[in-house]
Amino acid sequence: MVFGCIAGWFLGETIYSFIVACSGYDEMWLFIVLQIVIVIIMGLLTWKMHRQVILWGTSGVGAYLFIRGFSYFIGGWPSMSDIMAMSDIDQDDITAGTITYSYFIYLGLIVVFFIFFSCW
Known about the structure:
Elements: H1 2-23, H2 28-48, H3 50-74, H4 80-85, H5 91-94, H6 101-119
Helix pairs in contact: 1-2, 1-3, 2-3, 3-6
């Protein structure tokens, strides 16, 4: 169940960064509520369906951490502190700021590696 909660944290962070990248809406309350809800849901799912969630959770966390670590060398994925600081930036500057097309490439690679790790 603890692993499900940890996997839920990474899933919540990824969903929140996707929302910010697509809409520019980056309120702190959304981040907190999203994290709490997803962590609770993933914890309960792990308790009920532990085998499936462990398989998908390790695949998802592994894909996220692999791509996130890779992005530190290449660049282009904004850190959570950059995303949280975007509330101080005008909405017109967000697309020219920290969120670029490379973020969406990394997000696509997470999905590809998730599928690969799940099948492997």
